Q: What sequence folds into this?
């Protein structure tokens, strides 16, 4: 009998009840983090009206959150390795809850942007602890089950966000409803804090602490680089693209190059870098990172576009705007539940199928917005394209990390999955920045928007331009999929960031162990769903 056969025949170890209770505390936090990524979209038009927010501010509310979230993921995981994940998780949820309260009482658009960035920082602090604890508490096949449950929570919370946001604004009106979109996090946050304090285990002192510090200067460089790139992308359209916007973009590219040089030098000194340069010695991994960035730029921006079109352009309610997203959410939930099984059968073709369906769905929406009269636009017209795109999204989201991680050496899987998860969030921020600039830059002047018919026509045309860019991103992602390996080798670590739990379907002992290289192996945050 081979070792593999013996392992397959061995009974699965019994999981203590305390571990499942701890998982419930972790998934509560995951729920509010993912709920907040989708619930805010439907509130953007009412925020714009009530706070007299500028067009660029609306982009910052979404992209500022995503960027801060992505940049915090890796250092938060490393800090959790050193001091214990329980109190890192608790501190992150506490800060997230307080930031939600601050967002709800904000009296200006600038205040709201600042508090949203703090929310994003807080989310990036506590989400890595979720996957870290799953790695620590659940061995073997039970780990796959735990990650599958986490994937279901991601799907449900993301699907509920637009509906809950729409219901709150519908019930309490535009003036107070958008504030409740943030206040809804408070009861969940308080319950999560109590559950975390009671149910999560303390750090196991028998596990060696990482003996290397955090690459703070590298974090500063990469943060400054992405801020320098995003600020002109978001503000440039508002201000007419003055000289400083081009200088800022150039400066951001220089800072990214300096970050790369610093990481190489930091590694040569025997230190643990934020992003190990050797990962990019694999051309397939580099292509996979670009794929993650481009794909998340494509799909996370579509509901930014739809929410503004449906409410500001067509005059529909926030609830109606939230309802538009239902087919996409349903499609994502259905396909993500089957994606790991399909990945085993089809290999890379499951990602080809996923990106193809997303491209078709977004392309169909672009054509609809181009040819259908604004007065004839309804939820039903977009139902099939959104369902198709949602099905594609589910096929891609769950297995994409394991295929990208498979391009590097197994001992680097942990670092690779953490980098990919951060890139996914940054891709979301970049997508919103670019799409927001295209959408608002395509709107006609004030006189043409003065009437209901003019607003409907103007926003429809601008949304068509924005959706065309999203579809183009999806098409590029489709082409980049072919850079990935055809199959993931059996037993290859898949990382924890797959959203549905890596090898959840097969029950394989997926993902790097706690305390893996660089302390980042288990910190791949769940992807935006």
A:
């Amino acid at each position: 009998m081979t070792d593999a056969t013996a392992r397959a025949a061995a009974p699965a170890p019994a999981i203590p009840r305390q571990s499942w209770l701890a998982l419930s505390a972790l998934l509560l936090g995951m729920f509010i983090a993912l709920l907040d990524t989708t619930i805010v979209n439907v509130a953007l038009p009412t925020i714009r009206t009530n706070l007299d927010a500028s067009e660029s501010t609306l982009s910052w509310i979404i992209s500022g959150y995503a960027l801060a979230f992505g940049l915090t993921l890796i250092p938060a995981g490393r800090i959790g390795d050193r001091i214990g994940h329980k109190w890192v998780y608790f501190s992150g949820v506490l800060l997230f809850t307080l930031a939600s309260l601050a967002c709800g009482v904000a009296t200006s658009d600038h205040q709201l942007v600042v508090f949203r960035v703090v929310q994003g920082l807080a989310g990036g602090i506590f989400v890595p602890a979720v996957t870290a604890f799953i790695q620590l508490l659940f061995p073997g096949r039970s780990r796959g089950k735990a990650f599958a449950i986490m994937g279901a929570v991601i799907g449900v919370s993301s699907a509920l966000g637009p509906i809950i946001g729409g219901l709150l604004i519908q019930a309490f009106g535009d003036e107070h409803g958008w504030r409740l979109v943030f206040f809804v996090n408070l009861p969940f946050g308080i319950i999560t804090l109590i559950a975390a304090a009671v149910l999560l285990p303390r750090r196991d002192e028998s596990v060696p602490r990482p003996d290397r510090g955090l690459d703070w200067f590298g974090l500063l460089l990469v943060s400054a680089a992405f801020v320098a790139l995003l600020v002109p992308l978001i503000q440039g359209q508002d201000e007419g693209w003055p000289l400083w916007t081009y200088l800022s973009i150039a400066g951001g590219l220089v800072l990214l190059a300096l970050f790369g040089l610093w990481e190489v030098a930091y590694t040569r000194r025997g230190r643990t870098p934020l992003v190990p340069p050797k990962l990019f010695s694999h051309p397939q991994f580099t292509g996979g990172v670009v794929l993650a960035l481009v794909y998340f730029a494509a799909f996370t921006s579509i509901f930014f576009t739809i929410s503004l079109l449906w409410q500001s352009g067509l005059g529909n309610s926030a609830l109606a705007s939230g309802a538009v997203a239902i087919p996409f959410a349903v499609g994502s939930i259905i396909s993500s539940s089957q994606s790991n099984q399909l990945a085993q059968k089809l290999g890379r073709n499951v990602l080809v199928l996923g990106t193809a369906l997303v491209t078709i769905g977004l392309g169909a929406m672009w054509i609809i917005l181009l040819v259908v009269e604004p007065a004839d636009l309804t939820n039903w017209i977009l139902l099939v394209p959104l369902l198709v795109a949602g099905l594609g999204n589910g096929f891609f989201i769950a297995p994409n990390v394991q295929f990208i991680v498979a391009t590097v050496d197994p001992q680097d899987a942990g670092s690779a999955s953490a980098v990919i998860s951060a890139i996914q969030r940054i891709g979301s921020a970049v997508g919103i920045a670019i799409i927001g600039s295209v959408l608002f830059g395509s709107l006609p002047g004030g006189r043409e928007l003065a009437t209901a018919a003019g607003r409907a026509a103007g926003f429809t045309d601008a949304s068509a331009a924005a959706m065309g860019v999203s579809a183009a991103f999806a098409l590029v992602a489709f082409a980049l999929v072919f850079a990935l390996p055809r199959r993931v080798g059996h037993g290859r670590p898949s990382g924890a960031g797959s959203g549905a739990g890596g090898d959840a379907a097969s029950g394989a002992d997926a993902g790097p162990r706690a305390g893996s290289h660089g302390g980042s192996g288990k910190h791949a945050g769940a992807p935006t769903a």
Remarks:
- The CA atoms of residues 43 and 63 lie 15 Å apart.
